[in-house]
Amino acid sequence: MSAWEEALASARTDPATARQLLGLLTGGCHTLDGFEKERASLYEEGIPAEFLPGARELGRLDLIRPLFPFHGSGTARPTACS
How far apart are CA 50 and CA 68, in angstroms? Predict the structure, then answer.
C-alpha cells in the first residue's frame, strides 16, 4: 500500500486526517470552485462528507466572497472584485 493509499485509508475513519488531507490538497487553490473540486475528489475516495469541512470551516476565507455591510438600501451587495 502506498503512502497516499494509507493516508486515504486513515482519513476514512479519522476526521483529523481527513481535514489535514483536504488542507494539503487545497492549499494552492485560488477559487472556491477549485477547493470544492478537491473536496469532492476526497469524498469520491470514500472519505465521509462530515469529515471534509467547507472552505469557511477550514479557514479559507480568501475563497469566500466578502460582502460589504449594509449600505443605505438595507441589502448587502457583493464587492466590485467578485
Answer: 30
